[in-house]
Amino acid sequence: MSAPKILVIPGSHRASSINAQLGATIVRQLEKDGASATLVSLADYPMPIYDGDWEEENGAPEGAKKLAALMSEHQGVVFVCPEYNASITPLLKNTLDWLSRDVGCKPYAGRAFALASCSPGALGGIRGLSHMRDVFINVGADAIPAQLCVGPAGSAFDDDGNLTNERQISLLQNMSAKLIERAKQFS
């Protein structure tokens, strides 16, 4: 069986995003565990704020169609979720909403999903992940139970971008192994 392909999508595209940094860390772990992993930036998939009237007039934006097609080429997807006010960022929520529309394929079907977050706070963004799971239930995304929450972000990484906390490293390894195991079922 070939290595499953896993797409890693940070929910922030800020230049210094700690969630993009965590995304790169996740990619390294997935590859170490035998997956083929790809990190993308939502900046490369622009989408207007979801508006039913806009959609009726224009259809789905090209950014949503391209991201959906890319997701469909992978057996697993990790969303790395910043937390805004204990919930999902506007960028990430908008992306999730567009991907649930007619984008030429069904990006939530037939693949495994994992959730991770990173936050300056001690909880590591866990409150936002519960909201992600609520959205996933509604769109039919198969999210594994294992997840990763990293905080406080200021001391979470060494100079090479690796996690420093043994518990968080263990959670990363567990999430990676469980996602790869589940993604192989979609190969």
From TrEMBL:
GO MF annotations, alphabetized: oxidoreductase activity
The NADPH-dependent FMN reductase-like domain, residue ranges: 4-150
Pfam families per UniProt: FMN_red (PF03358)
EC number in record: 1.-.-.-
Keyword 4Fe-4S: no
Alphabetically ordered keywords of this record: Oxidoreductase
Signal peptide limits: none
Record has Oxidoreductase as a keyword: yes
SUPFAM superfamilies registered for this protein in UniProt: Flavoproteins (SSF52218)
Domain of life: Bacteria
Name listed for the protein in its UniProt record: NADPH-dependent FMN reductase
Organism field: Pseudahrensia aquimaris
